[in-house]
Fold these 2 entries.
Entry 1:
Amino acid sequence: MTVNLDSMYQEIILDHYRNPHHKGLRDPYDAEVHHVNPTCGDEVTVRVKVVDGTVEDVSYVSQGCSISQASTSVMSGLVVGKPIEDALALQEKFLSLMQSRGQADLSDEDEDELDDAVAFEGVSKYPARVKCALLGWMAMKSAVTEAEASK
Amino acid sequence: MPESERAALAAPYDVEAVRKDFPILSREVYGKPLVYLDNGASAQKPQVVIDAVSHAYSNEYANVHRGLHFLSNAATEAYEAARENVRRFLNAPSVDDIVFTKNSTEAINTVAYGWGMPKLSEGDEIVVSIMEHHSNIVPWHFIRERQGAKLVWVPVDDEGAFHIEDFEKSLTERTKLVAITHMSNALGTIVPVKEVCRIAHERGIPVLVDGSQGAVHLPVDVQDIDCDWYVMTGHKLYGPSGIGVLYGKKERLAEMRPFQGGGEMIFDVTEENVTYNDPPHRFEAGTPPISQAIALGAAVDYLTGVGMDAINGYEHELTEYALSRFTEVDGLRIIGPATAESRGAAISFAIGDLHPHDVGQVLDEQGIAVRVGHHCARPVCLRFGVPATTRASFYLYTTRGEIDALVEGLDRVKAFFGI
């Protein structure tokens, strides 16, 4: 086996890591969740605002590695403005990608939908890092579900 | 003069000869020589340990303390001989003071459930240090939750140093137990446990010492330390996983309730009643890790053969060398003592604002294995305001060349992330 760091640390990922989108906690919000990765101590707090079944805003603060930071940034960019069911469907798609161990067979349509998140395909080859990439997405799912339930 | 000291004086430490005893060290990863600096998490195994496991299963395997047939006797003898090896390694007074457990965690839980639960109650205080591993925290939290006991934390200073005065100040009339590490896995800090025991015993307080790291790096004499309990784990001590040790003073083991119930730990069981076996068997319920215990016996004998004083001296030099090389890495901040005094061969550090995962990933690509994470020591990470650290830990087979490789690797990490 060889490793190719560039397959994990795609330029898109490093860009999001250096310049995260949607970062910071904003009001108003309908749900706030706090998720931690107990194996490494990474943590994220995600807030979501839902209006008429659409994710109006995602804001967050997080502490963690470049993969978890970048992934949360990408997630927020993709989810804001989407109907809840589309946001959750995308979360499922990203989860499958991360569980693919580098063997994902993405359709053109999948690639379009996942957009920048496709860059994380390389991370799926590193079992120890998959949880990093999923941290923000799992938190978003909990927050959106919670926000919806509260309505 | 002990034989090991004589050997150390007679010949310089030959790390290359030692490395030949560890087959895995000659392998490559990703086409590069393995640089294994994750020893604090688990040690690699010498051939004598691998052979001991193989020999046990190939020649003298059966259940222990149960059969009357040839193999059962042979296995029981080998298992009990390993207990004697461990006794000798720790200089415990008797083999009856050596309990085989699954690991340090089970050893500490055995004391927490067997001694702590029945003896501690509401308001009683358990003194621990801020740099304990979770295995020496969570069992005491159980007693806090169930009995209302209180955890009292001995601090370390900003350099990660442990001060005996701070320890002394943490003792009160309600202190019923001290549970403290011999050497911090996260900071490398060494605790003067003999002094800790002396001060605690003046007040009639028993002391448990977590030797998971200490027993690997420091010569240990439990009678000299005078601790009430000393625990260690086999896999960090060049032995197999699944085997650990609880040493306890005779009177302490005698007053402990059994932790787990099952075979071997009883005198008699009736429909109405049960009576318990004497220590150490009282605390070894069920079929024990047989080949693991035998191989641990081989591991501690191997260490005695190399000499714990020689190992300690060599690792001290390596630590000094690493600390000095680390000063050349811009942006590297050591979390723990910055000098080799009062610290062992495990060094945690941060590189700028980089997350340890990212540091570890780039090092891995170069064949360098380090630990990244909170080291199961969240309280001390919180104390230093870091979610995690990168840790390089050195064992008896680590070379200066490997430390040089790490320093070069860190340069590559910084270049990769542009810092």
Note: Chain A is about 45% helix and 20% strand.
Entry 2:
Amino acid sequence: MNRFDEELKLALRREEPSPDFTDRVMARVAESQKREKPGEEAVWLRRLAEFFQPPQMKWAMAGAMAILMVIAGFGVHHRRESERKRLAEIAEGERAKEQVMLAMRIVSAKLKVAQKKVNEAAGHEDRGSKIEDRR
Amino acid sequence: MERADDTLSRAKDGDQTAFADLVREHQAMVFSLAHYFSRDRATAEDLAQEVFIHLYQNLGSIESPAHLKFWLRRVTSHRCIDHARKQRMKTVSVDDAPEPVAPSDFRDSLMTEALRRIVATLPEKPRLVVTLRYQEDLDPTEIAELLDMPLNTVKSHLRRSLVILREKVTRSLGEIRV
């Protein structure tokens, strides 16, 4: 530090305020406390108001957003699950329908075979009786 | 340090006597910062009072005696700048100030008074930087942190202010000892 710096330090040294400064500060502190000593209702209102001010508000908003996201997540999951169940039910129905159709086709084929055999048997019987008649 | 810790924790617990002790301990620092900035005792006392009321309302956030000192310097500096902005403070030009007649035995007090007046003519931020540097003996890094200012800006404020101060003191008091 040079001489000029020393002079500046000396010129800008700390000074005390008026002798009653501390008392005046404490009087203002007491006054502000009196003003801030409200009834229960006012305390409740102040706390509520404080809650809606940063940073409390920020946390409340974050909490609300988190809850909304969880609810939205559940909603999406539920909707997907319902859709999946509905598609599974449709597929199951289709499968059952195909099985019924297949069964019907088999029955129909079997009936055709049976009918053919009956017809053939009837043909043989007709031919036998005609021969006997000729004799 | 332990005593300061104890005073702070008692004040945080609501002990008014301990808070009064904190005020007494730091009032010269807070008042002087405001005084060299505003050059008006009444304004400086009002600003200092507001700073301590604000401290009382925010005692819970103060972590240690060192943090308390930092907090007070920071809040005082910002309050001073805000106040100056609101008031559009009139700065006294050193050219308007009466030329001091300097008998040699009064030279020191004249130099001190001249320097204070000239510091008061600096623009707000350089004035605050010079006050923090020479009143509080803070280095440029600490000042930069306190005022949220880039380090190079603090250094340049200091450099330029010192040039202005030297020039004006030389003009005001002559070449003696400057």
Note: The radius of gyration of chain B is 18 Å.
